Amino acid sequence: MDKNTQLVIKEKNITDQVLNRINIMQAEGSLHIPPNYSPQNALKAAYLILSEQKTKEGKPVLQACTQESIANALLEMVTQGLNPMKNQCYFIPYGNKLNFQRSYLGTIAITKRIPGVKDVKAYPLYKGDEFETEFDVLTGKLKIKSYKPKMENISNKNLIGAFALIIGENDILHVEVMTMEQIRAAWNQGQMKGNSPAHINFTEEMAKKTVINRACKMYANTSDDSDIFAQMLNKTYLEVEEEIEDNANKEMLDFDNTVETEYEVVEVSEEELNPETGEIKEKVEPKQMKLEPDF
Asked: What pTM was estimated for this model as a whole?
């Protein structure tokens, strides 16, 4: 039996194990799959990614990591209703253990499943922008009274903070505002203390991600469905994800092509999954992919 045949059998065993567990959880009523989410397609996408991924020692992840940790990582992905082909999560090998990590896009996806939530947005604040908040004593909510950004203020050296909005069907459900001092305090929890190339060169985007993470976590913990969604959002260490960039294998996949750090995926499969449906759609050539941390 050749190596490729062994990998196919290994895939079937793991995916079958996870799908069986999912079926049991659904039958028990302990797992509710989001509408329009296909565990089968998400598992196909995740396994295609894992079959291409190697550890920093050059070993295939599927061989270097234990079967139990791989199955648990895939189960965690399905439990949270996420798909790696939509940039919502990635997988990181630590030694012989595979770890599941949610991206900030995954955090947004989970938050948008809370009844009444339509969207999540974040905006940077620069010195010289007009920005004023007010507190509504009747609702106990912070509100944005005025926000008028100015093009001439856009510069990392002028960045003074960021704010995020949880948007409902008819109004703003939650406002989260963070100063750069607060944002950098969050970054300081990571190994690189906010000094990674992404934080230095894309400070605005990293600040927006940090305030989004905090807004989603706060809103989920105070919503009527907090038992369900707060538990999901608290599963990842949102304030220390930068540690991954320093300690984990650099081949972790986040599928966001906006940041400069690159690596080459080897032994790319001839078939590529449709990022919207998870279905196989066409043949592709090996390509460069880029890594983006979540701050």
From this structure: 0.71
